């Protein structure tokens, strides 16, 4: 069989991982692909000492790889959204198939990129953009194709999950774990992407588009980070039988689609509640299959390379006929699904209210909540810690619209006995 | 786009599920497939009241469906391995693509069937044959294609997992739970397939072939059922921090490939140890991606239909060019991988030895084990229960060949202080 020539652009962590895994397992990969898969051209500003580039054409200008007429597949691993976008569009224009691991690029510019690719009849594959080595895009777009997907929930940022896991298991403080994660190289030096939820929002955007057949709409994802998580809330959640996870949630409701990233209490008996450390997992609900879950490493050079190479082989196996798996799972987009604003979203809540230790305060708060139609599921009232006259009151509510909850919290915060901000964390049962 | 016409043979539980899910979700499925997917012909000995067959050609002789020149894809859902085999071979001969959910057929006759299909250039797809709605064949054959797979372990029989879960969670006896599972319709009236491990062995055969690129070799799977599991062992395992699961395990070693199905102690902190009830899960170890796990319903009409329809859509998306994903993942089989006999397999063990309550017995047993090169990891010695003079002695060993363990157990059982059979259950850490 005719070989497939691959050009790799970018030889950083993931580029080197892809290069080395392909080299190490090339015999099996060729047998699986049904034809030889060859890296013939690498574009990188500098060599990477981890990669033996002997016998391979190397260009300092990555656009030289796109111009190489012998290269069939351009693998974009340079990151960012400026040069990478230019590169991917140039590759499409040159009629080449593209593989990328770039979640920001796909989440923010995917609609434009896919339109260009469809016009040219080429494939842009991006399995590695979501949840690293877990074949979640393939699962949703192909494996669950029979299903109306009602929702999904994912632990899709390893650094955030590592921090929350350490806080719970070892009682450590947020800042302490974050500093360690940075030292270990899990978190970026600027941790905003991980901790503020931007990275998870990029991935959620891509998952939701594939699950529901809607365009990529990164700007409509409601995003909250984990920087305000305290040891106190982690422990109270535990007492109530819940874990706090930073989840990306997409859900189809009668009123529209929800897309949100935020810390979430989930029952500790759910399998996904037990996904700890840097591991990722995505739980998907289909009307025929029920719940399915996909678990694995969401980052790392070789885990990401695993997904990049899977895309390369998918293309290689089908090189003679254009790929017929639509870029976002559906050949015709459902453009009429409205995306809900955060105020329109209904969830249950965990509330922690610090109240002056006076008679009747509990009743007054319960009364305030019920004025806004909010019912309680569980209550813990603790004694005041030694150093403060404030009693922590922990409430779990039934599902309520965020709008009602906002109003209720404003009302509670204006009570004379409540002098501190109310802490609220969303709660999902994840049973459907 | 030209529609794809589907003929369904068999209208039992899975046949009806497939029919109904296709009908319910047809708009989305067509949009995902990029062309209309139509059931045009059903072959079934009798109608199923759950299916509205109006407007569809119905034949009492399923071979009429194969003869229908307008049908592109034959879906075999009649079960068994005689007529189903004949049907599938006839469909291949007629140049039709085939989808089947039949694990026994694929595990026992897959090599012959795939050879015929490859000669004819047609596809035989069987995602539904393993772990119901979980897209595990796709994950291994496509999603993890970059990896050298070192092993996998799966909970691949829902009935067995339900029984073991109930025994642990509610302290119920094996026979009691089995009777209930039969009443609930989880287990077959003749539960041999589930309880003796045959069903799991069929699925393991298929998983191992795809993971390692070896032919299907059902007759080489070492298979032990769960009928001898006692409440005692479930509880002792729990005390030691382990769960007992009925696992299908395939592993690639330097000496050959292991394929085995048996009750297994696994550390309770592993995610797969927490897969309870009728749910299935498959844990796969790849050299690039590390561990990944796939979880969902392993049986049931609609969960199985989900996988059947995924196969149909895969074929529909690629109908104009023959499928290039090899039937067992590799275009050339690795025929030189030896399959190990059970005596050659090395694992750790849980042993329960009932010993007469006399001085020096513990030392004598430890001495016997060490004569066979067996080291201990943990010991529990209990007081004798009221109604017997025998003390239960629980040991966890380090990994040892089964041959050595067989000899050691023979020696222990010949000690005068040991009057009962030694209970042994294999133990796997599942950390790689």
TrEMBL record, chains A, B:
Q: EC number(s) of the enzyme?
A: 1.1.1.3
Domain ACT: residue ranges: 350-426
UniProt: NADPH binding residues: 103
Q: Which reaction does it catalyse?
A: L-homoserine + NAD(+) = L-aspartate 4-semialdehyde + NADH + H(+)
Q: Where is NADP(+) bound in this sequence?
A: 9-16
The record's section on CDD domains has: ACT_HSDH-Hom
**Record-annotated residues binding L-homoserine?**
188
Q: Does the keyword S-adenosyl-L-methionine apply?
A: no
Query: Which enzyme class, named as a word?
Result: oxidoreductase
Q: Supply one GO molecular-function term.
A: homoserine dehydrogenase activity
Q: What top-level branch of life does the organism fall under?
A: Bacteria
Q: What residues make up the catalytic site?
A: 203 (proton donor)
Q: Which InterPro entries match?
A: ACT-like_dom_sf, ACT_dom, Asp/hSer_DH_NAD-bd, HDH, HDH_cat, HDH_CS, NAD(P)-bd_dom_sf
**Which terms does the UniProt entry file under GO BP?**
methionine biosynthetic process; threonine biosynthetic process
Q: Which family is this sequence assigned to?
A: Belongs to the homoserine dehydrogenase family.
PANTHER family for the chain: HOMOSERINE DEHYDROGENASE
Full protein name: Homoserine dehydrogenase
State the organism named in the record.
Answer: Reinekea blandensis MED297
The top of its lineage is: Bacteria, Pseudomonadati, Pseudomonadota, Gammaproteobacteria, Oceanospirillales
């Amino acid at each position: 069989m005719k070989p497939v020539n691959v050009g790799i652009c970018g030889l950083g962590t993931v580029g080197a991982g892809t290069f080395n895994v392909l080299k190490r397992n090339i015999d099996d990969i060729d047998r699986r692909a049904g034809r030889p898969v060859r890296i013939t051209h690498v574009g990188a500003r500098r060599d990477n000492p981890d990669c033996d580039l002997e016998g391979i054409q190397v260009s300092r200008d990555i656009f030289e790889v796109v111009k190489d007429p012998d290269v069939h597949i351009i693998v974009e691993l340079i990151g960012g959204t400026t040069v990478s976008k230019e590169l991917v569009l140039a590759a499409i224009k040159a009629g080449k198939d593209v593989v990328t691991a770039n979640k920001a690029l796909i989440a923010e510019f995917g609609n434009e990129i896919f339109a260009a690719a469809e016009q040219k009849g080429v494939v842009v594959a991006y399995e590695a953009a979501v949840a690293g080595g877990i074949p979640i895009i393939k699962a949703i777009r192909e494996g669950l194709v029979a299903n109306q997907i009602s929702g999904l929930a994912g632990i899709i940022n390893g650094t955030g999950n590592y921090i929350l896991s350490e806080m719970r298991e070892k009682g450590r403080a947020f800042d302490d774990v974050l500093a360690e994660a940075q030292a270990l190289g899990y978190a970026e030096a600027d941790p905003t992407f991980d901790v503020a939820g931007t990275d998870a929002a990029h991935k959620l955007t891509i998952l939701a588009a594939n699950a529901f057949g809607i365009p990529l709409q990164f700007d409509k994802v409601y995003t909250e980070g984990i920087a305000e998580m305290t040891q106190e809330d982690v422990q109270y959640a535990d007492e109530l039988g819940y874990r706090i996870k930073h989840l990306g949630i997409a859900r189809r409701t009668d009123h529209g689609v929800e897309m949100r990233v935020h810390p979430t209490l989930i029952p500790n008996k759910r399998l996904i509640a037990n996904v700890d450390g840097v591991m990722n997992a995505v739980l998907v609900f289909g009307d025929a299959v029920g719940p399915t879950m996909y678990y694995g490493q969401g980052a790392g050079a070789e885990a990401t390379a695993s997904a990049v190479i899977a895309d390369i082989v998918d293309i290689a196996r089908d090189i003679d006929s254009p790929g017929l798996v639509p870029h976002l799972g559906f050949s015709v987009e459902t453009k009429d699904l409205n995306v809900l604003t955060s105020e329109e979203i209904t969830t249950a809540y965990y509330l922690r209210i610090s109240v002056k230790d006076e008679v009747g305060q509990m009743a007054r708060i319960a009364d305030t909540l019920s004025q806004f139609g909010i019912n309680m599921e569980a209550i813990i009232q603790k004694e005041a810690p030694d150093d403060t006259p404030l009693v922590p009151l922990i409430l779990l509510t039934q599902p309520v619209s965020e709008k009602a909850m906002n109003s209720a919290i404003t009302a509670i915060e204006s009570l004379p006995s409540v002098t501190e901000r109310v802490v609220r964390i969303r709660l999902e049962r994840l049973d459907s």
